[in-house]
Amino acid sequence: MRARVTARWGAVCLRTVFSRCARCSCVNSISTAVGTGICIHSRDLRSPADAYSTSAQKTLQHVQSFSGRCASEAKDINNNGTVLLYKGGAYVNNGTVRELVTSEGCWLIPEAINDGGQVAGWSYQVDNEPTCAVWGAWLFDPVTNALQDLPNLGGWSKALGINNNGEVVRWATLTTQGDSTPTRAFRSDGSNIYELGTLGGVGSCAWAINDYGQVVGVSDTQGDCRRRAFVHDGVLMWDLSERVTPDSHDLVPYAAYDVNNLGQIVGSGYTSELEAHRFLATPNQ
Fold this sequence. Notes:
Shape: globular
Number of helices: 0
Oligomer: single chain
Structural class: mainly beta
Helix content: under 10%
Strand content: over 45%
CATH architecture: 6 Propeller
Number of domains: 1
Number of strands: 24
Distance between the termini: 19 Å
C-alpha cells in the first residue's frame, strides 16, 4: 500500500561549517544525512569540496574518503551506514573505501544505495566511445558484482534513487533530439515503468523513493515555470512548499533530494530574503 500524503512538514535549515555551496544529498532512517561542501574556514580558496555527514544531533563530521587533496562527493547513505561516494567513479565506504566496478569507455556516476547493496546510477560516454549510452541508467547487483543497463524510453535516462524493494526512480527523455527536450520523472518496479507527472509545468525529475513508495524530487510549476520540491505518494504529486508548516523559517523548498522511511526529506530551499539553505523537513502528524 502506498503512503498517502496527509502530513505537513516542519523544515529546519542545516547550518554547517560549510559554505553556501554545500548540498545535503540524502538522509537514512536513523536521521543521518550526508552531503558535500567546502569548509568556510579554509584559507585556500581552491580547496575542493568533500564529503560530510551530520547526525540527528546536528553534529557534523568529515566522511573518510580519499587521501591527499582529491575531492569526493557523498551521494547516499543506507541504514547500515554504508556511504556511496563519487570521485571519477563509483565507490562505497563501509569502514574502508573500495571501488564498485569499472566500465571501459564510460564514466560511472553512482546516485543511490539500498540496504542490500544495490546501487542505482548513470553513465556517459568518454570521447564518443560507442560502448555505452550518452546518458544511460544502470543498476549494480552486489550478488553478481555486475552492472545492468536499465531500459530507456527513447531518449536519455538517469537513475537517481532506489529503495529496499528494488524500485528505481529516475528522470528520462522520450527523444535525444535537441538540448531543450524536457525531462520527466519515472518510477519502475522491475517490470513496469510509471510516469509521475509534473506540478503543472513541462518537466520533472525524481530523486529518491522510500520503502513506502513516497517519491521526492523537483518539478516545474504552471505559468511562471518556477521549480519546486515535490513529494509523490504513488497517486498524486504535491508541492512541498505548500505542505511545510508556517513556522518553517520562511523556507521555500525548491528541490528535494531524499526521503527516508520516517518521511523526513532533505533538500535545498530559499527564504523570502533569497538566502539559500539546505533543509531537513520532518512530517508532523
